[in-house]
Design a protein that fits this description.
Shape: globular
CATH superfamily: Ribonuclease Inhibitor
Helix content: under 10%
Strand content: 5-15%
CATH class: Alpha Beta
Largest sheet: 4 strands, parallel
Order of helices and strands: EEEHE
Number of domains: 1
Structural class: mainly beta
CATH topology: Leucine-rich repeat, LRR (right-handed beta-alpha superhelix)
CATH architecture: Alpha-Beta Horseshoe
């Protein structure tokens, strides 16, 4: 079994980044540095092992597309639901 993805904190320095694909990486948590990338417009987190999303996802005000399908999510942060984001999601029962 392959190890889960481990991203460096320096990822947050990529402030010009618009698209970040972290799908299919066996992640159990969203790295804090991801929520500091305020210019992201597309974030792909699908097909991981996420059980929740951090409340800090609300910092991604430019986010227009978020793929979170095929994870272990039960709920979404209330601020995320209020954002004008195209959610591609399938919550697991």
């Amino acid at each position: 079994m392959a190890a889960a993805l481990n991203l460096p904190d320096s990822l947050s320095q990529l402030q010009g980044l618009r698209t970040l694909a972290l799908d299919f990486n066996k992640m159990e948590d969203v790295p804090p540095a991801v929520c500091e990338l305020r210019n992201l417009t597309r974030l792909y987190l699908g097909s991981n092992r996420l059980m929740n999303l951090p409340a800090e996802v609300k910092n991604l005000q430019n986010l227009r597309c978020l793929w979170i399908g095929d994870n272990r999510l039960k709920t979404l942060p209330p601020d995320l639901v209020r954002m004008e984001t195209c959610l591609a999601n399938r919550l697991v029962d």
